[in-house]
């Protein structure tokens, strides 16, 4: 069976004879599993097995037959050589009986010479006991090359005439009267024997070579298709479904089993290739759909971010003005108006907290916050948080316990305070009356583990995977703003990621909850002692401020609040006017408060840059309600101080007081 394929049937050119179809490189096959008690162990390869199966029997038969025929031939040569030598000896004995009996030496010499002329022997000796001794032929040959044949000389019936017998002779019938010895040279015999051995060995070698060639051809005929089939299967296993066996039927008598196997594997490869094409087409379609949906999701996320940024800005503008007016109205409100103004201030604060949380998430998503890693003693941190939450714990009738164990961590103190404080707030909110909230720190293999535990109602497993999502609250379906907005845990999760850790939760219904995270440990001896408390705020009388905003309500509210604090205020609505005021040099401002988005194409950053350039001693602050990631990243790269609307009057007063202290 030929292993070559017609040109139009080949998928790839083949290599030299005996090599398989051209296949792509493939990884080595995995090691076979260890054999079990019922496993058939196969060693070697098919071609070697075929050699053993074909050559060994042929070699054994050839050697046996050659040895048998050669042995018979040598025995025949041996028998013929001995028979000829013995026949010459008998013939000489028969011809020399009368001459030896009569003692006729010349006649005996003639008989011996006549035997030599026949060429079958090289030397003849005739002798008897009466002293007659006749020889013919040279005695120069080595005895090792001669073989001797003897024959007794007896009288024939016609020769027994006692009248002619010499004195002392007897006619005793078959009694030998002498001895004939003939010698044959074995050189020719040895040469013929050697030729016979060489001929036998040659015949054996020819038989072995013929058997080897025949078996080799048969082995290649069987092994080459099998090798191609094996390589094709390996290529299919590696995922190259375009490879084929390229084995065709070479004869016309029946169907070869190897060709059937190769055709079956080719059909399997074609089916696998079709299935892969179908799978790839489905994967491409699914990928296209996924990419389309991903693009839609990204577009929706961008739209939501733009909407939140615009809504945040649009909401912060009036809320900022409202807070300024409310803070200005509160000192002069009558007793009848004061409860309404306080309720209005509370609502404004709730809206401010919501917008601040949204801003915090935007800042974390925009990755504009960089943690200031330092050594933080947990005792000091827990004391600050205890002072912050002690009143809320007493109001909720919950025991708040702290256990720092004298440990310290490496982290950002403000971010860590935000995480633990938020977790404590949640625990106090969900702990039952008379319950306990425990904030504990303990060493672990990877650092210091901080845990916040409560014995409240717990969280069902179905909710534990979503409590860190924005606006997701388990037990606040009525959306009571006093119970939070569902952003605290989302902010904590993002801050924890920024600090290189992750908050885990372990909870069960009616068994309480435990929130925990791990931070790197620090030695308490290396912690820097706390700074002394800041000086009391100084009065703001005489502080000259420039307020830039395109919203008249914000300008009026800012003017009223700052003048109430004793500041000298100038308000402008455009960036060009503000830059002109800064560049005159006649008035030196102590603080410049500018909005980001001004009327027209005005940009508050340009005003801040001009203030830093023209009046570098002035406190330049950007006041904006825009909280988009792009805006935050831009302000961070520009090193601009930002106050986010709505600005709490106390926060603004503290900032201006800091400026006054620096001036003093």
TrEMBL record:
Check the record and name the InterPro entries matching this protein: CheY-like_superfamily, HAMP_dom, HATPase_C_sf, HATPase_dom, His_kinase_dom, HisK_dim/P_dom, HisK_dim/P_sf, Sig_transdc_His_kin-like_C
User: Boundaries of each HAMP domain copy?
Assistant: 220-277
Task: Describe the reaction catalysed, as an equation.
Answer: ATP + protein L-histidine = ADP + protein N-phospho-L-histidine
Q: What cellular component GO annotations does this protein have?
A: plasma membrane
User: What segments bear the compositional bias annotation Pro residues?
Assistant: 25-36
Compositional bias, Low complexity, is annotated for: 12-24
Q: What is its main location?
A: membrane
Annotated region (Disordered) at 1-37
Keyword Kinase in annotation: yes
Q: Name the Gene Ontology molecular function terms of this record.
A: histidine phosphotransfer kinase activity; phosphorelay sensor kinase activity
Against Pfam families, the record matches this protein to:
HAMP, HATPase_c, HisKA, Response_reg
Q: Which residues form the Histidine kinase domain?
A: 310-523
Which SUPFAM superfamilies does the protein's record reference?
A: ATPase domain of HSP90 chaperone/DNA topoisomerase II/histidine kinase, CheY-like, Homodimeric domain of signal transducing histidine kinase
Q: What is its EC number?
A: 2.7.13.3
EC main class here is transferase
Q: Which PANTHER family match?
A: HISTIDINE KINASE, TWO-COMPONENT HISTIDINE PROTEIN KINASE
Segments passing through the bilayer: 50-69, 197-215
Residues modified as 4-aspartylphosphate are 595
Q: What is this protein called?
A: histidine kinase
Q: Which residues form the Response regulatory domain?
A: 544-660
What are the record keywords, sorted? Answer: Kinase, Membrane, Phosphoprotein, Transferase, Transmembrane, Transmembrane helix
């Amino acid at each position: 069976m030929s292993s070559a394929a017609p040109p139009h049937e080949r998928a790839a050119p083949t290599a030299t004879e005996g090599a398989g179809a051209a296949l792509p490189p493939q990884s080595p096959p995995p090691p076979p599993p260890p054999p079990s008690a019922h496993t058939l162990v196969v060693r070697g390869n098919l071609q070697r097995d075929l050699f053993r199966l074909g050559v060994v029997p042929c070699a054994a038969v050839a050697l046996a037959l050659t040895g048998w025929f050669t042995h018979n031939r040598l025995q025949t040569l041996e028998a013929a050589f001995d028979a000829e030598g013995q026949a010459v000896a008998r013939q000489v004995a028969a011809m020399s009986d009368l001459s030896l009996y009569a003692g006729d030496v010349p006649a005996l010499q003639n008989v011996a010479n006549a035997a030599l002329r026949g060429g079958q022997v090289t030397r003849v000796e005739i002798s008897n006991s009466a002293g007659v001794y006749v020889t013919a032929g040279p005695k120069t040959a080595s005895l090792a090359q001669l073989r001797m044949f003897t024959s007794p000389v007896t009288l024939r019936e016609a020769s027994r005439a006692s009248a002619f017998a010499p004195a002392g002779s007897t006619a005793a019938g078959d009694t030998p009267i002498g001895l004939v010895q003939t010698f044959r040279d074995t050189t020719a015999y040895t040469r013929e024997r050697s030729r016979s051995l060489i001929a036998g060995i040659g015949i054996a070698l020819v038989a072995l070579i013929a058997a080897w060639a025949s078996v080799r051809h048969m082995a290649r005929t069987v092994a080459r298709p099998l090798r191609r089939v094996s390589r094709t299967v390996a290529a299919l296993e590696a995922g190259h479904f375009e490879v084929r066996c390229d084995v065709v039927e070479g004869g016309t008598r029946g169907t070869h089993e190897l060709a059937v196997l190769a055709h079956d594997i080719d059909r399997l490869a074609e089916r696998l290739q079709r299935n892969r094409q179908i799978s790839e087409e489905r994967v491409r379609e699914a990928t296209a759909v996924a990419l389309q949906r991903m693009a839609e999701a990204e577009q929706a996320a961008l739209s939501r971010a733009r909407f939140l940024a615009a809504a945040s800005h649009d909401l912060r503008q009036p809320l900022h003005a409202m807070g300024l007016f409310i803070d200005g109205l509160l000192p002069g409100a009558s007793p009848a108006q004061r409860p309404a103004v306080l309720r209005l201030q509370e609502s404004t604060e709730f809206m401010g907290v919501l917008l601040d949380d949204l801003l915090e998430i935007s800042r974390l998503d925009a990755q504009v916050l960089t943690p200031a890693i330092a050594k933080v003693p947990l005792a000091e941190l827990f004391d600050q948080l205890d002072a912050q939450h002690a009143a809320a714990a007493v109001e909720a009738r919950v025991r708040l316990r702290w256990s720092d164990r004298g440990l310290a961590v490496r982290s950002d103190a403000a971010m860590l305070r935000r995480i633990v404080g938020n977790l404590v707030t949640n625990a106090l909110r969900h702990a039952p009356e008379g319950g306990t909230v425990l904030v504990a720190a303990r060493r672990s293999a990877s650092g210091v583990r901080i845990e916040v535990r409560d014995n409240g109602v717990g969280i069902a497993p179905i909710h534990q995977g979503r409590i860190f999502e924005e606006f997701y609250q388990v037990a606040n379906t009525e959306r009571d703003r006093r119970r939070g907005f569902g952003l605290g845990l989302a902010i904590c999760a993002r801050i924890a990621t920024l600090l290189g850790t992750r908050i885990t939760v372990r909870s069960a219904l009616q068994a309480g909850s435990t929130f925990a995270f791990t931070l790197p440990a620090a030695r308490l001896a290396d912690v820097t002692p706390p700074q002394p408390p800041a000086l009391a705020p100084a009065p703001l009388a005489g502080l000259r401020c420039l307020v830039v905003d395109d919203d008249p309500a914000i300008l009026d509210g800012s003017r009223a609040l700052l003048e109430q604090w004793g500041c000298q205020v100038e308000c402008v609505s455009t960036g060009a006017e503000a830059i002109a005021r800064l560049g005159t040099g006649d008035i030196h401002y102590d603080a410049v408060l500018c909005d980001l988005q001004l009327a027209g194409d005005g940009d508050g950053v340009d005003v801040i840059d001009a203030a830093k350039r023209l009046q570098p001693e002035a406190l330049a602050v950007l006041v904006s309600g825009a909280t988009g990631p792009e805006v935050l990243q831009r302000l961070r790269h520009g090193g601009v101080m930002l106050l986010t609307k709505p600005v709490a009057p106390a926060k603004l007063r503290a900032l201006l007081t800091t400026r006054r202290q620096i001036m003093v």
